Amino acid sequence: MAQSDFLAVHPDPVIHYGRSADGIVIRRINAAFETTFDVTAGDSVSLQETLESGVTVSDVADAIESGDSLDRRVTCPVDGDARPFRLQHIPAEDGGYLVYTDESERVARERELEARNEQLETFASVVSHDLRNPIDVAETYLAAAREEDDPEHFRRVADALDRMRTLIDDVLALARQGKVLDDTERVTLATVAEDAWATVDATDASLALADETATLQADPDRLQQLVENLLRNALEHGGPSITVGTIDGDRTGWYLEDDGPGIPADERADVFEPGVTSSTDGTGLGLAIVERIADAHGWTVTVTDGDDGGARFEVTEVESLQPF
């Protein structure tokens, strides 16, 4: 195949280069290269500008000089983002070719597979351990109830069944909340917080709204689930005074904090892991669900110290938050 045909029909960005007394000479680029890297055939093309990490111009130059093939995973700057590519050097008699194959879809599939595997591990853990315990408890007290006809035994069985129902609901929520968002709408943060507050048992607690006008683009149901889980966590582990507001400064986001004892710095990295809980009644999935919902929106959730020493959960990178 002639070089002109190769460049014309190849779907990936391609550079055709040659050698001269002055070194490497870029002779042609194809239409895919022009589109991907926003250049035209008449522009001066710099190899360094197409490479961000994974390989250097000297690596490419060494392969060209030696006539060796090159096949590397690299990241290239495209439209302001670092995008994964497979860079191949194909030697030829009159020079050679550099082929850039976009691997964004492959990387996305791998990440999705990793997330699915993590979900399967969570399911396996719950089924093999967390669900087995209340089942064993229910069986024990049911057998005792049959022998003794004691209402207390039936109450214990009912508690165990409630525990299993909670576990199942949380595991299903964990699986569902990480799915890609289909539709979002602009909602008021304070309204979502108030709706979430109405669903939790907060008889001896109070909710303060530090910002009643801020809005953001979100899936309303998932955002309310996120806030509900943060509220339940604060009510169970924190203090009775809870505040929801927006973050001041350069960062874009909002927070929920309590006035309780807080979370030690060396434990904060683990609180979003499925199954991590300091409560005998908790499933350890509430904050994992929070992180899944935040991820689905493209947000980041972290925990730090609150103004009054309690736990402060911050949801940042909320680019749609207004005003900010």
- Give the strand tally: 12
Main sheet record: 5 strands, antiparallel
- Structural class of the helix and strand makeup? alpha+beta
CATH H-tier superfamily of the largest domain: Histidine kinase-like ATPase, C-terminal domain
The residue ranges in which pLDDT falls below 50 over 5 or more consecutive positions are none
Order of helices and strands: HEEHHEEEHHHEHEEHEEHEE
Q: Count of DSSP helices? A: 9
Order of strands across the biggest sheet?
2-1-5-4-3
Count of individual domains: 3
Determine and state the CATH class of the largest domain. Answer: Alpha Beta
The CATH topology of the largest domain turns out to be: Heat Shock Protein 90
Radius of gyration: 28 Å
Mean pLDDT: 83
Give the termini separation: 57 Å
* Level-2 CATH architecture of the largest domain: 2-Layer Sandwich
Q: What general outline do the C-alpha atoms trace?
A: elongated
Indicate the proportion of strand residues: 15-25%
Helix content: 40-55%
Short description:
This protein folds into three domains: 100 residues, Beta-Lactamase (2-Layer Sandwich), CATH 3.30.450.20; 75 residues, Helix Hairpins (Orthogonal Bundle); 143 residues, Heat Shock Protein 90 (2-Layer Sandwich), CATH 3.30.565.10.
Task: Explain the overall architecture.
One of its GO terms (molecular function) is protein histidine kinase activity. With 324 residues, the chain is of the alpha+beta class. The chain has 3 domains: 3-102, PAS domain (Beta-Lactamase, 2-Layer Sandwich), CATH 3.30.450.20; 103-177, Helix Hairpins, CATH 1.10.287; 182-324, Heat Shock Protein 90 (2-Layer Sandwich), CATH 3.30.565. Helices cover 41% and strands 24% of the residues. The chain is built from 9 helices and 12 strands. It has helices spanning 3-9, 31-37, 57-66, 104-130, 132-148, 151-177, 189-197, 220-237, 286-297, and strands at residues 14-20, 23-29, 70-78, 81-92, 95-102, 185-188, 206-209, 215-218, 241-246, 253-258, 300-305, 311-316. A 5-stranded antiparallel beta sheet has the order 2-1-5-4-3, sandwiched between helices. The chain has a 5-stranded mixed beta sheet with strand order 7-9-10-12-11. A hairpin with a 2-residue loop joins strand 4 and strand 5 (95-102). Helix 5 (132-148) packs antiparallel against helix 6 and helix 8 packs antiparallel against helix 9 (286-297). The longest helix is centred in the middle third of the chain and has 27 residues, at 104-130. The chain is elongated, with a radius of gyration of 28 Å. The model has no long low-confidence stretch (mean pLDDT 83).
